[in-house]
Amino acid sequence: MTVFIIRRILQSLAVVMVMSFIVFGGVNIVGDPVEMMVSDEATQEEREKVIRSMGLDKPWYVQYGRFVAGALEGNLGKSFVYGEPALEIIVHRIPATFELALAALLLAIVIGIPLGVYAGLKPDTVASKSIMAGSILGFSLPTFWVGLMFIMVFAVILGWLPSTGRGDTVPLLGIDVSFLTLDGLAHLFLPALNLALFKISLVIRLARAGTREVVHQDYIKFARAKGLRNSRIVLVHLMKNIMIPVVTVLGLEFGGLIAFSVVTETVFAWPGMGKLIIDSIQSLDRPVIVAYLMIIVLIFVIINLVVDVLYSILDPRVRLSEMKS
Amino acid sequence: MSDAAAPPAPADAGKVETPFRRFCRDYADSRIATAALAVLVAIILLALFAPWVAPTDPYDLASVSILDGKLKPGSQSMDGLTYWLGTDGAGRDLVSAIIYGLRISLGVGVMSGVFALCIGTAVGLAAAYFGGRVDAFIMRVVDIQLSFPAILIALILLAILGKGVDKITIALVIAQWAYYARTVRGSALVERNKEYIEAAQCLALGHNRIVFRHLFPNCLPPLIVVGTIQTAHAISLEATLSFLGVGLPISEPSLGLLISNGFDFMLSGLYWISFFPGVALLVTIVAINLVGDQLRDVLNPRLQK
Hints:
Helix content of chain A: over 70%
Mean pLDDT of chain A: 80
Oligomer: heterodimer
CATH class of the largest domain in chain A: Mainly Alpha
CATH architecture of chain B: Orthogonal Bundle
CATH superfamily of chain B: MetI-like
Number of helices of chain B: 12
Largest interface: A-B, 44 and 38 residues
Mean pLDDT of chain B: 81
Shape of chain B: elongated
Low-confidence stretches of chain B: 1-11
Distance between the termini of chain A: 15 Å
Number of strands of chain B: 2
Strand order of the largest sheet of chain B: 1-2
Shape of chain A: globular
Structural class of chain A: mainly alpha
Radius of gyration of chain A: 25 Å
CATH class of chain B: Mainly Alpha
Strand content of chain B: under 5%
CATH superfamily of the largest domain in chain A: MetI-like
CATH architecture of the largest domain in chain A: Orthogonal Bundle
Number of helices of chain A: 13
Largest sheet of chain B: 2 strands, antiparallel
Number of domains of chain B: 1
Number of domains of chain A: 2
CATH topology of chain B: MetI-like fold
Strand order of the largest sheet of chain A: 1-2
Number of strands of chain A: 2
């Protein structure tokens, strides 16, 4: 067990190292940072001064070493656009993205499970068939286009909900959140639903498959024979048993929600870190791009590490098969 | 469903059923899949022959007039042409713009799909054929890559590389090769232990010959299925990245860019500039996915009657 965890941590470190190398190399080989820092009218002396002050006259491995040393101290340079430390800007935006992702996760459960259970209990009704057809559509629809259509229908034509921004926020434990104000909730609903669409389809399928398997089990038959109310059988006996795969998959998919929030945040102008990276790419704000890429890699590596370790605890076969190879 | 194929033509009775014929018959079992295939072929033809099919050339500055801008679907241009789907902000006919956009979207999707398939297949075959440490190393890399969503990998690469057809193709190939590698390795591992490979090895044939002439053709069916579905995914991914402004440059107006272009007009109620290119994208993706689903059923030997 310990060996397995140590190996996984080493592997995660290796991934972070490789990614830092790719990001650092990409930024320094593909783009010339000096071009962006120095105006065209600068003299040769001024240029060289900037090059020296940025450490660009040193060999690449020294530069890389400095980059890593800085990153370990939490120093990833200052944003060209905002003039503040890049890391601080991104960390400041993280709560908005996490709030959106968690709201989407909640919607996926609240909408997906009842629909999936219904489709599993009565597979032959028209409603069930439309639910399943809808879930296929949910997999195929491009997220960004659905977002646009949401804005068009609910914000422009019907005028029910606001189309952009985060609305009023209130501080909760020092972090600004939207979901505690009515205005914030109204702003949160459409982006969260948009982001959740794909996961809703996924949950519907999982819940339906689970339900169809579970309804034929002996304990459900026994509960029926005991004369329990139908609602109790479904809500207690059935629900408990289909939740395990649903919760596992949703946990795994949380990283995907954060990645896809880039799209939703851009469509709905939600001020999270996904919108920040797109804005930064447009304005060539390299320190922020580098910092974002490093942070997102770190988030993913941590999520994957936690999932791997949890899995090996839950299912010993995973680590045994790996130790053999 | 079956009554479509039910009356067997008497002329066919004497002929031996070739595998291809059986494949076609099995495929036609599903009417939805057949319709999807017809739609897909129509879309591909439209894209291939765009300059001859499209009513106007949307990027010919001489024929596009800004006075025709933002016209509603179905309205007439000044020289009597009907804009069935309306025009965009610059007065381009949307029907033509969508047909030209399909060309770029399909082109990028198919090109990146083919490259990813070649690289993924070579790597996957190598892993399965040589086994041992090569296999363990390759599969570890594949696993690590698949733990990141494709859109994130493409975004990281495009943030570094910048915009362009070549760059988005590279990004899509890198984001997708691992799916092919895993698929090919899976089926190659099964095939590898069969007698015909052993026989070929006993004949002392070269590695290349065994892998490409014997092993590879038998791994094709699952690869075709993954190839169709991943191509749909690549098209959707390209549209998303172009919409975000990190994919294609404005000089290559794919469907994603058309949609992004209409985004600016949507808040003032001009829905069609974004809506119709999106419908075209959706129809394309759904058609490819339906064809892929049916291929999976037809090519799966376990489901064969």
